[in-house]
Design a protein that fits this description.
By secondary structure, the chain is an all-alpha fold. It has helices at about 1-20, 25-30, 35-60, 65-90, 95-105, 105-115, 125-140, 150-175, 180-200, 210-240, 240-250, 250-260, 270-295.
Length: about 300
């Protein structure tokens, strides 16, 4: 039975990473349909919020929270708004596969923040991971022919990675004693309202999807890289542990890159794959180090 659970956990870890990696598929298809960034995110998170609300209704789960929990959930919601919005905006500035790969430096950023602000002494492996991730971003920034990526796009993705790293830190330190459904119910409400506010301030129109294709990809974004990925990630962490789950997460940017190359004809270069290799190696080093510390 234990062996079967481990196999199931590995399958869930692979599935979660691949599901997360399909973010560009839904986003870019909806951009092709003429939907704005805020419109895509409002529709995505609103639909995901409704689905989770229905699940909670059948689970008969209370929505009541304390003031302390509300403040923690508010922080999580605002951080996730910033992370999702900047990532989806970066898709307009660079290849989505490249953006998703740079986003994957967030575990390294988490280690840096913990060292700077929470007095965790950085090890040599942490320093090596930081250097590798920096080299990976540089390789992605300069293409093989000497051209460079959009500086604004790079900044947007790095902000997305930073706010997601902060999201993870707040989640771990808040120690919320509630189900993942309840946490995500409130986080998704913030995501819907936050992106709606951004759209209105930016003068972007918020409208319902205009055809079946748009509805399909909105549903895809709400279910596959959100609810489905989250659920499988929980089972993966439960049955195989956080370190193997983090390592399997390397399939996330790889999935995004392959989608970009084969579906959206994004460029495939030596620098691209070298940059991916450096960033993924940095993440694996951080994951293995965290596992050693826990032991």
């Amino acid at each position: 039975m234990t062996r079967n659970k481990k196999i199931f956990g590995i399958i869930c870890g692979i599935g979660a990473a691949i599901c997360y990696g399909t973010n560009p598929l839904g986003a870019l298809k909806l951009y092709e349909q003429g939907m704005s960034t805020s419109n895509v995110l409002v529709m995505r998170f609103s639909l995901a919020w409704i689905i989770i609300a229905v699940v909670m209704f059948f689970r008969k789960e209370s929505l009541r929270v304390t003031l302390k929990e509300f403040l923690a959930l508010s922080s999580l919601g605002l951080l996730f708004v910033a992370s999702s919005l900047t990532l989806y905006l970066s898709f307009h500035k660079m290849a989505a596969g490249v953006a998703s790969t740079i986003l994957f430096v967030y575990p390294v950023m988490t280690a840096i923040i913990m060292a700077l602000f929470f007095h965790e002494k950085p090890s040599w492996s942490t320093v090596l991971a930081i250097v590798l991730s920096f080299l990976g971003v540089l390789l992605l920034y300069w293409s093989d022919n000497g051209a460079t990526l959009s500086t604004i796009g790079i900044i947007l993705v790095l902000i997305s990675a930073l706010t997601y790293a902060l999201y993870i830190i707040v989640m771990n330190r808040a120690k919320l004693n509630m189900s993942s459904f309840k946490i995500n119910f409130y986080v998704l409400i913030y995501c819907s309202l936050g992106n709606l506010a951004y759209g209105l301030l930016a003068g972007e129109s918020i409208m319902m999807p205009s055809n079946g294709v748009s509805w399909f990809y909105v549903l895809w974004l709400a279910v596959v890289p959100a609810i489905l990925a989250l659920t499988m990630m929980i089972y993966a962490a439960k049955y195989i542990g956080s370190t193997p789950t983090a390592i399997l997460g390397a399939l996330e940017p790889l999935t995004a890159v392959l989608i970009g190359i084969f579906i959206f004809s994004e460029p495939c270069t030596l620098n691209l794959f070298a940059g991916i290799a450096f960033i993924l190696l940095a993440v694996i080093i951080i994951a293995l180090q965290n596992n050693k510390v826990k032991q």
